[in-house]
């Protein structure tokens, strides 16, 4: 079995549904091509093929053969984006089209201008006008016909020919005119949808000033390396993700979070690419550059959004494929039964299914683009579609439902035999020193508990050796030669500490006379007490013994109750808390917000639970922070990552990433999804109805060909106007 390769090919020149079909078939026919998808808005093809059978020159040639070209660079072209209010531009376009329609109809039909032109102008001249005006369309139609394909404009072309055959060359010319008007409207519409993405990419910084050997060098952002120090001045946008090493600044993070309120950043603070310094200047140590930065990922995500097509679009595509034969049938019936050639021409001309193909992506991309500007990153229309009918919400606890900045409440630390004698350290510090050093590189919110407590006591941490993080359990590391583990009860089991018979009366597994079982035994009842208070515990084990406890409380995010009430009001019946923490801690929180819970879960248990609900036919949304719950986020029908600006794992795993730590965005994104699906369905219903009514009127001779031609150029504008409501997204 040959190895398949998947590539994306940027294609220039596609601006209608026809083009997509042409390119699609041209590539699909090549030897070795397994599958190919062509995207109108993203202007690219994505294909998987066998490199042994096909090389890229052949693909390029096939694309060129049907009249398009393969673009050299993958990046979006930096075309100047037209300015002006969208609704005004749509209005102007609508006005233009309406004026042409009126002119043609009034001057041509009612005032008899057409009849006079037909009399006075010799028909060969008329033929030239028709052929020249319709050349780009006819070329596509002929190319497709030579390959045995019928495209959307094929029928219109047949209509034009029919009109010419019955001697109505002026009618043919008007049809051609409106065919071009329709194309223009379609190009405009597709361009609008592209803009939604381009507006975002335009915010990406292009150059960075890097400090090397004491000198500032300006370079393209692509050349910046991790650990480079970049210098950013007021008014400039920060070119990379990084950590402030020097300076103080007020930063506008709207590009990432959509939040208009600027934030303060000083040494140690994380900063993100594409955010803008309003006041002050900074030196930033690069942690992630270019496509790796949060903004880079966001761009990639939105650029690829078109690939995650909504199911409903497949329905629309299917509609297009049986619509053409239906039209041909109606045209034939009209010709045979009603013997009305003009009506037949009208039938052929009124039927353009292009708008059906556009109805879904235009609305989806308008929504995705608008949401992105508010810090809600949606990876594709599919997720909006599924989210709109979700009925179950599963929530991770630590870092998701809680602030993820737990406050340490108790440090239980008996004298540590092994590390006694550290000079000048107050009681409890040895334990903290060991625990915080072991947690030094953990990304878990609880790790920060130990680190913050250590900081508060001005302890400088050791460099941990053999660091290992076990998801949902804790960490193991070697600190100053001691094996230190920090985590929950599961961790204790893992390192051989008997933690379950916590009353201290039972026999212990491995008696260790040095530090004494009595210590473990003495700590366990204390642990049970702390747990009963709903506190989250970090057990610290040292060389196979329980050495101490850190207890912390994590507070519920203040906006959660209100957000959950909104979620319920949106019809999500079942809300459940899933946590790796112990049951008492889970219960304390669950009761506060009135949801059910499951505790003591490992990351794989969370996946199982998601699957179980899915097996019951539920549409499951999972909200998490990407720490230990990324697999469950990916498994859910829609995984929503909260506070995603902090975690690239979350952006990667989730289907929707909320850049801010703000729960009110959860009901917000559900509302966006519902509204989007509303617009999509309206678009589809509108175009379907429009086509059916147009077809019927034409078949019964109530719609002259000229009107029919004018009519087919209009639905795109309706769709665009309707969908652009989604661009003007306002937060509730
Ligand atoms: P949640 O499901 O509440 O978000 P996690 O699955 O991230 O929690 O973690 C579950 C439990 O595992 C935590 O409550 C904690 O007891 C333990 N744990 C995980 N990672 C760590 C760590 N780095 N340090 C200490 N404890 C940890
Ligand atoms: Mg978590």
User: What is the CA-based Rg, rounded?
Assistant: 32 Å
Q: Which ligands accompany this protein?
A: adenosine-5'-diphosphate, magnesium ion
Query: What global shape is seen?
Result: elongated
Instruction: Indicate the structural class.
Output: alpha+beta
Mean pLDDT: 83
Counted by DSSP, the helix tally is: 26
Low-confidence runs of at least 5 consecutive residues: 73-84, 417-426, 501-516
Q: Give the proportion of residues in helices.
A: 40-55%
Number of domains: 5
Q: Biggest sheet, open or closed, and with what strands and sense?
A: 7 strands, antiparallel
Number of strands: 24
**Percentage of β-strand residues:** 15-25%
Give the termini separation.
54 Å
């Amino acid at each position: 079995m040959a190895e398949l390769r998947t590539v994306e090919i940027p294609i220039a020149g596609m601006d209608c549904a026809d083009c997509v079909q042409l390119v699609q078939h041209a590539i699909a026919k090549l030897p070795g091509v397994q599958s190919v998808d062509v995207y109108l808005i993203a202007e690219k093809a994505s294909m998987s093929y066998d490199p042994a059978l096909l090389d890229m020159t052949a693909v390029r040639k096939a694309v060129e053969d049907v009249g398009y070209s393969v673009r050299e660079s993958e990046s979006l072209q930096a075309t100047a984006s037209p300015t002006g209010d969208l609704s005004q531009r749509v209005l102007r376009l609508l006005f233009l089209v309406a004026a042409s329609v009126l002119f043609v109809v009034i001057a041509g039909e009612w005032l008899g201008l057409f009849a006079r032109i037909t009399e006075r102008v010799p028909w060969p001249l008329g033929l030239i006008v028709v052929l020249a005006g319709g050349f780009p369309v006819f070329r596509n139609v002929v190319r497709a016909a030579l390959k045995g394909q019928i495209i959307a404009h094929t029928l219109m072309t047949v209509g034009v020919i029919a009109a010419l055959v019955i001697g109505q060359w002026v009618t043919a010319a008007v049809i051609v005119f409106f065919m071009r008007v329709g194309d223009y409207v379609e190009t405009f519409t597709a361009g609008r949808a592209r803009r939604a993405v381009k507006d975002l990419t335009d915010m990406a910084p292009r150059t960075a000033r890097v400090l090397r050997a004491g000198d500032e060098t300006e370079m393209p952002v692509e050349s910046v390396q991790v650990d480079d120090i970049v210098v950013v001045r007021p008014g400039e946008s920060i070119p990379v993700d990084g950590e402030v090493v020097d300076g103080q600044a007020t930063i506008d993070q709207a590009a990432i979070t959509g939040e208009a309120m600027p934030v303060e950043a000083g040494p140690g603070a994380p900063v993100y690419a594409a955010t803008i310094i309003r006041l002050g200047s900074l030196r930033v140590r690069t942690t992630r550059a270019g496509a790796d930065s949060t903004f880079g990922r966001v761009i990639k995500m939105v650029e690829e959004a078109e690939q995650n097509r909504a199911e409903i679009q497949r329905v629309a595509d299917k509609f297009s494929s049986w619509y053409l034969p239906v039209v041909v049938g109606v045209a034939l019936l009209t010709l045979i039964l009603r013997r009305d050639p003009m009506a037949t021409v009208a039938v052929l001309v009124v039927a353009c299914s292009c708008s059906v193909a556009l109805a879904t992506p235009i609305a989806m991309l308008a929504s995705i683009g608008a949401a992105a500007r508010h810090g809600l990153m949606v990876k594709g229309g599919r997720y909006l579609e599924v989210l709109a009918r979700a009925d179950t919400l599963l929530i991770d606890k630590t870092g998701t439902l809680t602030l993820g900045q737990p406050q340490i409440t108790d440090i239980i630390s008996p004298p540590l035999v092994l590390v006694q004698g550290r000079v000048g350290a107050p009681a409890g510090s040895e334990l903290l020193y060991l625990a915080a050093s072991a947690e030094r590189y953990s990304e878990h919110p609880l790790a920060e508990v130990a680190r913050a407590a250590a900081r508060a006591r001005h302890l400088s941490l050791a460099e941990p050796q053999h660091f290992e993080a076990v998801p949902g359990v804790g960490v193991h590391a070697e600190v100053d030669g001691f094996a230190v583990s920090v985590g929950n009860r599961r961790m204790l089991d893992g390192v051989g500490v008997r933690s379950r018979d916590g009353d201290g009366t039972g026999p212990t597994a491995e008696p260790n006379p040095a530090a004494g079982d009595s210590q473990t035994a003495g700590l366990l009842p204390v642990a049970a007490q702390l747990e009963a208070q709903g506190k989250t515990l970090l057990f610290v084990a040292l060389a196979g013994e329980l050495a101490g406890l850190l207890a912390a409380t994590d507070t519920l995010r203040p906006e959660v109750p209100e957000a959950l009430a909104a979620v319920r009001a949106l019809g999500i019946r079942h809300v459940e808390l899933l946590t790796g923490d112990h049951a008492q801690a889970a219960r304390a929180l669950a009761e506060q917000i009135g949801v059910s819970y499951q505790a003591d879960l490992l990351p794989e248990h969370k996946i199982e639970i998601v699957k179980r609900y899915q097996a019951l036919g539920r549409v499951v949304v999972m909200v998490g922070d990407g720490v230990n719950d990324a697999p469950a986020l990916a498994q859910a029908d829609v995984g929503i990552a909260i506070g995603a600006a902090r975690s690239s794992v979350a952006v990667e795993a989730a289907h929707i990433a909320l850049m801010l730590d703000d729960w009110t965005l959860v009901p917000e994104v559900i509302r966006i999804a519902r509204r989007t699906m509303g617009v999509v369905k309206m678009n589809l219903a509108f175009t379907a109805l429009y086509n059916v009514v147009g077809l019927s009127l034409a078949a019964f001779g109530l719609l002259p060909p000229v009107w029919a031609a004018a009519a087919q150029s209009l639905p795109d504008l309706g769709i665009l106007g309707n969908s652009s409501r989604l661009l003007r997204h306002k937060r509730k």
